[in-house]
Amino acid sequence: MDLFQSMKAFVTTVRAGSMSAAASELNITPAMVGQHIAALEFRLGTRILNRTTRRQSLTDFGVSYLEQCKDIIERVALADMEAENQSNEAIGALRITAPVTFGSSLLMSILKRYRDINPHVTLDIVLTDRNIDLIEQGVDIAFRIGKIPDSRLIQRVLMPYKMIVCASSTYLTDHGYPEHPNELPNHDLLLFTPAARATLKFYKSDQLVEVKPKSVISVNSGYALINGAKSGLGIIVQPQILLEPKIRSGELVQILADWSLQERQLSILYYRDQNMTPRLRSFINFVLKELGEENGDLHHS
C-alpha cells in the first residue's frame, strides 16, 4: 500500500478518535483505514495502536511514530505549497467546510465555474452544521453563518443570508393564510432543529414583531423541512436561496412576504498565519466575486 497514504490514515485516525471517523474524513471505508494501519505495523514490525472493540490508544512506539508521521506530512504539504507558489498556478487540494443547507444548494451550484477557471484544483467539501476547528480538521476555508467569535480567523464578509416563510397551498387551504407574524403560533411550524428555540424577528418599516415559535416537528435538515412543507405538514422558515425554486414551481407559497426576517451574515474564514497559496487565493477571490456584496481582491487587501 502507499506508505504516505497509510501515514495519513494513521494520523487522521488518532486525531479523529476512531477509524470510522477517519474514514469519513478521508472518504474511504473504515476497513481500508484498518488496512493502512495494519500495513504500517507490518512494515515496522510492531504495533502502533492498541485496539479493542470500545476504544483505541497509542502504543509507546506509536506515540513517537505519530510525531514523525505528522512531520513528514507537514513537510510534504510545505513542499507542495512552495512548488505551487513558484509556478504561481492554482494547483493541489483545498479542504472546505460549510453548513449543510448552504453547501448542498448555493455552494455546489457555483463550483463548476470555479473549476472551469482552475481545473488543477481539487476540492474536498465537508458539510456540517458544527463549527469545527479549522486547524484540527485540516480545513483551509470555512463558510459560516452568524457571529464569528474566534479572533484567530480572518473573516471576509459575503452576502446576507435571507430567510423567508413558506407553506404549501394545500396547508394554506386547510389552515388559513397568516396575514401577520403574530398568527404563526396558531399554526403548525416545521423548524430547523438548531434554531427551533430561537425567537423570530420580523421587520416592516419601523415595526418590529418578535415571535416565539412552537414547532410541531423539528428536524436537522433543510431539505427534510422542504419535503414536509410540500406534503402539507406545516409552515417553514428557511433560506430564500433554497426556497425560491420551489416557489417558482408552485410547490410552495411564500407568506408574510411584506415582512422581513432578521438577516444573518454569511462569511468565509481562514487562519491569519495560513500560507496564501495561489489555490487558496484563487478560491477566496472567486467566492468574493460570486457571493460578496462587493468584489474583493486579496492582492489589495
Record the strand order, biggest sheet: 4-3-5-15-6
CATH hierarchy: architecture of the largest domain? 3-Layer(aba) Sandwich
Indicate the CATH class of the largest domain.
Answer: Alpha Beta
- The CATH homologous superfamily of the largest domain is termed Periplasmic binding protein-like II
Number of DSSP-assigned strands: 15
CATH fold topology of the largest domain: D-Maltodextrin-Binding Protein, domain 2
As residue ranges, the low-confidence spans are 295-301
Shape: elongated
What percent of residues adopt helix (DSSP H or I)?
A: 40-55%
Q: How would you sum up the major sheet?
A: 5 strands, mixed
Count the domains. 3
Q: Which structural class matches the secondary elements?
A: alpha/beta
DSSP summary: helix tally: 9
Helices, strands, pairings?
Elements: H1 3-16, H2 19-26, H3 30-44, E1 49-51, E2 56-58, H4 60-87, E3 92-98, H5 100-117, E4 121-127, E5 141-145, E6 153-161, E7 163-167, H6 169-175, E8 189-192, E9 200-204, E10 207-211, E11 215-219, H7 222-230, E12 235-239, H8 240-249, E13 253-255, E14 260-261, E15 264-271, H9 278-291
Parallel strand pairs: 3-4, 3-5, 8-11, 8-12
Antiparallel strand pairs: 1-2, 5-15, 6-15, 7-12, 7-13, 9-10, 9-14
How would you sum up this structure, described in words?
The protein is 41% helix and 25% strand. The chain is of the alpha/beta class and 301 residues long. It has three domains: 3-85, Winged helix-like DNA-binding domain superfamily/Winged helix DNA-binding domain (Arc Repressor Mutant, subunit A, Orthogonal Bundle); 89-161 and 265-300, Periplasmic binding protein-like II (D-Maltodextrin-Binding Protein, domain 2, 3-Layer(aba) Sandwich), CATH 3.40.190; 163-262, D-Maltodextrin-Binding Protein, domain 2. Helix 1 packs across helix 3, helix 1 (3-16) crosses helix 4 and helix 2 crosses helix 3. The protein has nine helices and 15 strands.
